[in-house]
Amino acid sequence: MIWRAGKLKGFTLIELLILLFIIGVVSALTGITIYRSTDDLYLKTFAKELSSSMRYARSRAVSEGKTYSFLIDDTNRKCGFYPADEEETENIQRPDDAKKINEIVFPAGITVEDIANNSNQGSEGSKNNIRIDFFAQGDSTGAGISVKNQKGTMFQITVEKISGRVRTEKVQSSR
């Protein structure tokens, strides 16, 4: 600042340029931080949507008194749940084979893996399917599923066998 005879006269051009430079650097760093966290936000949203859909399948199974199958088709990058009569339960291999109630498409860059060996190995081309049955009593076939993005951030979805309870938790990376 320039002082003349005890009065403030104003800011110099150098002072204004330094201030603009500092504001620009702070803005750039904030933008980078926000951009990096959007991938994690998409992952968290997808994991919660997936577990919410599983809870809904369990709720429908209990309220209607019949079995519902939740199928994850990693090849076609979609999942959803379907009613399954006891006779039909063994024949449903892919989501296209049944009447869909709810379908979720995987966002780009997100992968789903079976960590509890629930893969449906029953027919040709169904190795990448994960199937979880929810029964009328509230129990299920159980499952452990990991959902991760390209950065390595991971959420784990666990479906308990006895209670059919669905839990979602973020797994700490070992970096």
Quickly list its features:
175 residues; alpha+beta; four-stranded antiparallel β-sheet; 1 helix; 10 strands
Radius of gyration from the alpha-carbon trace, in angstroms = 26 Å
Widest β-sheet, arrangement of strands: 5-4-3-7
Count, helices: 1
Terminal residue distance? 48 Å
Number of strands: 10
Shape: rod-shaped
Structural class: alpha+beta
Which H/E pattern describes the elements? EEHEEEEEEEE
Query: How confident overall, as mean pLDDT?
Result: 80
The profile of the biggest β sheet is: 4 strands, antiparallel
Strand content: 25-35%
Low-confidence stretches: 120-126
Q: State the share of residues found in helices, binned by percent.
A: 25-40%
Characterise this structure.
Helices cover 30% and strands 30% of the residues. The protein is of the alpha+beta class. The strands form 3 sheets. The protein has a 4-stranded antiparallel beta sheet, covered by helices on one side. A 4-stranded antiparallel beta sheet has the order 6-8-9-10, covered by helices on one side. It is rod-shaped. The two termini are 48 Å apart.
